[in-house]
Amino acid sequence: MDFLKKPIFIIILAAALVVAGIWAYISNRNQAKEAEQKAESEKKATEAVKISNLTNIDSSSLNENITSQASVADGKAAEVDKKFQLIAVEVKLPGSLDTGSGETTYVYASSADKINNWVITVSNTTGKFVRARVPKEDYIGGLGAISRDYWKLNYIAALQIAEKNGGLDFRNSNEVVEVRLTLKNSDPKNWLYWFVDYVSKNNMKEIQIDASNGSVVVQ
């Protein structure tokens, strides 16, 4: 028992305690670092999942594609009649709202043709298109020409505004099979608006948005 009282034992014991303390400190730091790295990885994974469809991507990320698509439609319309004017744009999307999905239809009219509109429908996935003359009474009607100076919002921006103003709530409580976005002149004041229609099997919700400033028209 006298050995326990000797300085050498006390020194050894103290050293052992110091080493144990250092080891515990390093171990705790490593565990904390691993936990932090795991949390960061989970955060990035969650963010990756969130950025999965048209409701949460950067609304300007597809501007180049949208502009190019509209330019092709304008060019094809001009080949038929240089007097054609754009009177409406309709975007049809599946209920999943996946990026690059659906199709966009550009509708043109000419003062020389009182009966038909000319339409070109472009796939948002492949870029392939179909053209046709369609009687006004069958589709869109006799609308006035769009003033492109007031066309400030693309369909993605309009969709995201609609989501924040009742669209998301509607999707959460209904099985939405299609979302249609139509750009056209309409009441009030015959201004340019996006009409965002959420279509479910048994119901529909429409949200009207000013295409110039993004304000929602209260109905």
Form type: elongated
Averaged pLDDT: 88
Fraction in helix: 25-40%
- Integer count of domains: 2
Q: How would you describe the oligomerization state of the chains in this entry?
A: single chain
Q: Largest sheet, described in full?
A: 8 strands, antiparallel
Taking strands numbered 1, 2, ... along the chain, how are they ordered across the largest sheet? 4-3-2-1-5-6-7-8
Order of helices and strands: HHEEEEHEEEE
Low-confidence stretches: none
Q: How much strand content do the residues show?
A: 25-35%
N-to-C span: 93 Å
- SS elements, strand count: 8
Per DSSP, the total helix count is 3
User: Which structural class should the secondary elements be placed in?
Assistant: alpha+beta
Rg (CA only): 30 Å
Protein name: PepSY domain-containing protein
